[in-house]
Amino acid sequence: MSEVATSEGLEWAAARGMGALAEKMGMEFLEFGIDRCVATMPVEGNTQPVGLMHGGAYVVLGESLGSMAANLHAGAGRIAVGVDINATHTRSATSGIVTGVCTPVHLGRSITVHEIVVTDDQGRRCSTIRITNMIKDAPAGR
Fold first, then answer.
1. What 3-state class would DSSP assign to 107?
2. How many other β-carbons are positioned within 10 Å of the β-carbon of residue 99?
C-alpha cells in the first residue's frame, strides 16, 4: 500500500472517529486503506478474570477494523453495517499489545467480507476474525 493511501485513510478514520468503545479499549490505528488496515490494542484493561485477553476484546478489535474498512470502501453517501461476524481464538495474550491486520476477502457493491488476524507481541496468531458488512445508502443527513 502506498504511503499516500495510508495517510489519506488515517485522516479519514481520524475524522470519522473510532467510537467510544474502541477508545475505551485503547485501540490505535497504524495503517488505514482499502487493501490493509492495522490497529493495536493493549492487553492490560482488556482481560478476563484469570488475566487472559478477553475473547470479546479480540472481536471488538476485529469488528472495529472490518467495519471501518468496509465504510471506507463504501464511499460517500453510503454506509456499511455488520451482518455477520465470527472468531476463532487460538492463543491467549497475557501482556503487551495485540495487533490486528485487516484484509479484504471480497469488496462488492453491496457486501464486503474482511479477515482480521490478531497477533501477540511475538507475532503469534491469537485470533482469526471474519466480518461481513452490508453496504447501503446512508440515512438522510449523514
1. strand
2. 18
Print pLDDT tens along the chain (142 aa).
Answer: 445 456 788 888 888 877 899 999 999 999 999 999 999 999 999 999 999 999 999 999 999 999 999 999 999 999 999 999 999 999 999 999 999 999 999 999 999 999 999 999 999 999 999 999 999 999 987 6
Query: pTM of the entire structure?
Result: 0.91
Q: Which cell numbers in the block locate residue 125? A: 496468531
Helix (H) or strand (E) run with residue 118 in it: strand 111-119
Asked whether the beta carbons of 99 and 118 are under 8 A apart, the reply is yes
Contact 119, 65 (CB under 8 A): no
Active-site residue set: 63
Q: DSSP of 20-75, one letter per residue?
A: HHHHHTT-EEEEE-SS-EEEEEESTTSB-TTSSBPHHHHHHHHHHHHHHHHHHHH-
Helix, strand, coil shares, percent, the chain, to 5: 25, 40, 30
Instruction: Please tell me the distance from the alpha carbon of residue 79 to that of residue 7, in angstroms, as a whole number.
Output: 21
